[in-house]
Amino acid sequence: MSIGIIGAANVAQAFARHLLNAEIAVILSNSSGPDSLSSLMAELGAGATAGTVADASIGRDRLCSE
After folding, report:
1. Is 5 left (phi over 0), alpha (psi -120 to 50) or beta?
2. Residues whose CB falls within 8 Å of the CB of residue 55, separated by 6 or more in sequence, listed in order
């Protein structure tokens, strides 16, 4: 399962952590682009990916927006 999250502020990060703890892959996006999320991806670890809004929304099992 893969969940796309548009937005990467506090609520999205907490949601992503819960999903990752359940071994569900997440892709987070924001308006600044995936490069701006590199430190967050390092913090979240395996299963977390940064992408564009299109990356987060296309081909995912679910899509959430913060």
Report:
1. beta
2. 4, 27, 29, 34, 49
Measuring CA to CA, how many Å separate 38 from each of 4, 29, 45, 47, 62?
16, 11, 11, 14, 23
Contact predicate 22/48, CB 8 Å: no
Q: Which of 53, 40, 39 is nearest to 5 (CA)?
A: 53
Residue pair 3/55 in contact (Cβ under 8 Å)? The answer is no
Residues 38-64: pLDDT tens digits? Answer: 999 999 999 999 999 999 999 888 888
Tokens of 55: 């990356």
User: pTM for the full model?
Assistant: 0.89
Contact between 27 and 5 under an 8 Å Cβ cutoff? The reply is: yes
